[in-house]
Amino acid sequence: xxxxxxxxxxxxxxxxxxxxGLLYALAAVRGERTERLAARALPxxxxxxxxxxxxDLGGTLASGQGTRLGFAxxxxxxxxxxxxxxxxxxxxLPLPAVRGWLAPVGLLVVLLAAFxxxxxxxxxxxxxxxxxxxxxxxxxxxxxxxxHGALLDAAERRLRLKxxxxxxxxxxxxxxxxxxLQLERLTFRFVEVGFVVLSATELIGLFDTVRWRWDHKTVxxxxxxxxxxxxxxxxxLYGWRGxxxxxxxxxxxxxxxxxxxxxxxxxxxxxxxxxG
Length: 276
Hints:
Low-confidence stretches: 1-5, 163-173
Oligomer: single chain
Distance between the termini: 32 Å
């Protein structure tokens, strides 16, 4: 039996995806004896995950079918970006506790992509392709912001439950090895960069008249942009901090997830329709 290039690429992607899932599972293991091995497993899983994404995307592009779309492939790309950002960040600001969060999520999205691979789709125009790429980038940046926001909330809860530190600033608390104020600045740096990327995504989508339409995806994406705009303005003008700011972050990210991932999940899983 001779496999076509697209079928062979899909088969290779499935095997590589399974290997990435095993490595993510290994990275999620906790314990003193396995700590060093688990720490090395996460970057290895990220690299294998990248190979699976390249094989999958390369297979559809090589066969002339376009780009694979769907809620699970987009989630897989998003989590891959978040883990990559964490890998870069950990070179300068170690956050060892984050691995325990990222590894199970990486395993989950690899499994979702295996069971719900989506369908190849022609984006049509270069601006539509750029719109898609920037949208994935915005998802990844806000995903990283949510990860840091969750760390920030957890650190602030610990500070409220304990006595104040005498002879020093509360910023001396180190959630996962990072000073609290530094973690807060990094969280909202991701928010600001993500907002810029999201704004560019919305502008490109607006001028791409072939694809622009007022559907659920557009409404949720515009709502998320408005929430993030309010968060950036509130932070800059009124100094929003702590739980007030992270609530806006979570709300905006939820709306952004509903814009594409949520709508695609309903279409693909609940209604059984191909992405488009």
